[in-house]
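re the bet — no i am not wrong, look at it urself. input seq straight from the record:
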Amino acid sequence: MADAPNPHDALFRLLLEDPQRAHILLREQLPPAIAARLSEAPPKLLDGHFVDERLRNTQSDRLYELRLRDGGAALLYVLLEHKSAPDPRTPLQLLGYMVRIWERHAGTDGRKLRRLPPIFPLVVYHGAAPWRVPTSVLDCLAADAGLKAELQGFGYRVRDLGHIPYEQLSADPAVRGLLGVLRYAFARGLDAATLARLLRDIPDDGVLLRPVLLYIVRQFEIDERVFWAALADSRPARQEELKMTLAQEWIRQGKAQGREEGRAAGRQEGLQQGEATVLLRLLSLKFGPLSAADRARVEQADAETLLLWSERVLVAERLAQVWEE
């Protein structure tokens, strides 16, 4: 059975049902500096019920659109508080309601998100005890005046990695290298010298290097020759070892790509095509450019043979060892 309407809520809603009465009430209750900027147009009641379900019997809310003298619009969120004691949660609740109002207003429209209407929260309180709850979330923070000044307006700082020179990303090489990986993740035409400089900053401790290299293989749009040149420059002693690790990743990606192509085409040829493509890449990287005959051999092989050759390329020292019976 639905709960009976709270008598306080019902009376307050009755007071605000008439636009003219609402206009008078709101102008009188708002700060004079805000009231002076309102036009003579009566407020327009909007659908703005954002009260939490658990508070439905203790709170009443109203959302109005106000017209400003300069032709703009503002929103006024009115909350009736009638608890016997002031609710210390009010600052956070109001902030949450404001966020929901803005989200409903703008959705995912980028233009609207850049021009959100100002919201003036107004609490009308008629409880027995005096209202001594902070009137701003800032006043609820355990921070001194200096920190609160930095938080004023709840702005946030942006570190746009793409506009920061690599050497200025961090004074610590490991941090600089990891941020550099993120910085160049969507770069096109990355050169070997830049990538090598980045890789030299990554510690060779067995913790970071492998995940970084796998990330580059999976995410970067980079010419493979550039990648191998950067790896040889930054890790000459471990070049062959790391090549094998990354070759296994390329085989895995090639198989996944082949399976996807096979599903999309509904044919086994899709799987074989993906495996042949990745095998040709690995052979070229390890042994140099392939002859037309070698390329034809790969393209005409069946799935089982391609898998066998993909495993052999990891350990073969000469191209002929891949083809051996």
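see?? The radius of gyration is 33 Å. told u. also The first helix runs from residue 7 to 17. so pay up
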